[in-house]
Amino acid sequence: MTAAGFTLFDTAIGRCGIAWSVQGVVGVQLPEANEGATRARVSERFPDAREAAPPPGIRRALDGIAALLRGEPSDLSAVALDMERVSPFHRRVYEVARTIPAGATLSYGDVATRLGAPGAARAVGQALGRNPFAIVVPCHRVLAAGGKVGGFSANGGVTTKLRLLELEGAPARAQLPTFGFDPAVALEHVRAADTRLARLIDKVGPFRMRLDRAPSLFGALAEAIVYQQLTGKAAATIYGRVKALFPSGPRGRNGHDGPTPEQILRVSDDKLRGAGLSRAKLLALRDLARRTADGSLPTLAEVQTMDDEAIIERLTEVRGIGRWTSEMLLIFRLGRPDVLPVDDYGVRKGFMIAFGKRELPAPRDVAQRGERWRPYRTVASWYLWRALELAKK
Asked: Would 5-69 and 217-332 be classified into the same CATH topology?
């Protein structure tokens, strides 16, 4: 599509971009990793466009988008779109999607039925996957069958889709996604970026990493503290004893079967020590509970809007939470795509095996090689752990 101009603008989910022609909006760009990446992505999509002040109609459109992303009522149905290069079928799909109000959702099959083509759910999904008008054409309001979240092509993948739905109050929590990125795309990228790692991937097989979703940041970190420097079996026993101290109430109050911050603050040291916690872990749990109770620790919803380094910086303020624990949360709880825990022994040992090193590599050496794997270093990390497992077998 030919665009005359573009601009970037601030929203509650980050800095977005919008491009326009004389006919209307040509495209909307959701935030990339940073402002520079967003600007580069807009320039890539619309190479003829020049950064400029938006005309009045485009200004109204971006103000409406920003309002919607603040969780405010905002009707974008009158925003003019330039669909000159959009195929007739895609145009019909986008027109149906624009009729879905904020806070509501349809399935791909529902959209196909409204088009008069009930067997075209897959084609609808493909059309929405290529939607150039994010937010204005609210493809995030279209779910897969059974209430599953489905895919999302913007940066952050389905994690971004969930954030948008949450802002609008839509009931899209029926099934949380496995990752905030497309594992198939990530795997293809890593394989192409590093032939040596591709050999390891061939030996290991499909990417089978699974997430342990956290209903609350406190619950995830409390469990992580208990599990530090223990075997899985021993840690599970101790954590089970800690949970048994609070047999009633927690699940209903905060959605998980561990203690609440208030319960940790009220229980005696003797009881926590009696459950098997060391003095250091007891103090760490207390500090975590205090920071959660007074609001100095971000909530899980707030964490979803933060970049990886900002999360690590905030979490490591808690006693007993270091960079490694934070990185494990980013990988296995939040499903972040680009985390490489270079200080992890398993990652370094797996690197030594996969790349034929005689000695355990220094973290800086792993980090240097890892630059090839961006922005999917999480996938590479998982395969390095599997290299160690293969060697043990």
From this structure: no
Domain spanning 217-332, CATH architecture = Orthogonal Bundle (1.10)
* pTM of the predicted model over 0.85: no
Distances (CA, A) of 130 to 85, 124, 376: 12, 10, 22
The Cα–Cα gap between 218 and 329 comes to 11
Q: What tens digit of pLDDT does each residue of 320-345 get?
A: 999 999 999 999 988 899 999 999 99
Average pLDDT over residues 222-241: 88
Q: Which of 336, 375, 360, 373 is nearest to 201 (CA)?
A: 373
Q: Spot the catalytic one: 82, 194, 338, 344.
A: 344
Collapse the DSSP code of 27 into the 3-class scheme (helix H, G, I; strand E, B; otherwise coil) and give the result. strand
Active site annotation includes 287: no
Q: Which amino acid is at 361?
A: P
Cβ-based burial of 268 (10 A; exposed 0-12, middle 13-18, buried ≥19): exposed
The pLDDT tens digits for 65-99 are: 999 888 888 889 889 999 988 999 999 999 999 99
In this structure, are strands 142-143 and 106-107 parallel, antiparallel, or unpaired?
parallel
Confidence of residue 359 (pLDDT cuts 50, 70, 90): very high
The CATH code of domain 5-69 reads 3.30.160
Alpha-carbon span 268 to 206, nearest angstrom: 47
